[in-house]
Amino acid sequence: MTTKQEMINLLKLENPTLRYGDDEQGYTELSKEEYEAIINHWADARLAREARKAEAEAKAQAKAELLERLGITADEAKLLLA
Question: What's the total number of domains in the chain?
Fold first, then answer.
């Protein structure tokens, strides 16, 4: 799993600058403090998404292992609950 600092470094490589605005009114680059805050927020969000994905994969693996130990398929397990 990626550390927060590794994620921050990756995000900074992907987004060396951040700005807001549009073509008609022009763009304004974020201040250093705003940039750091946004990057930190994005890093937290990506890490949370990675954690949820890892948790779901672990649950699926545990379920598959249990079904294998029991010698039944997922469909057969569903029939037991019906």
Answer: 1
19-22 and 26-29 strand pairing = antiparallel
Q: Which long-range contacts (CB under 8 A, 24 or more apart) does 34-39 make?
A: 39/8, 39/11, 39/12, 39/15
Q: Which domain holds residue 68?
A: 4-81
pLDDT band (50, 70, 90) for residue 54: very high
What crossing angle do the helices spanning 4-14 and 32-70 adopt, rounded to 10°? 120
Q: How confident is the model at residue 2 (pLDDT cuts 50, 70, 90)?
A: confident
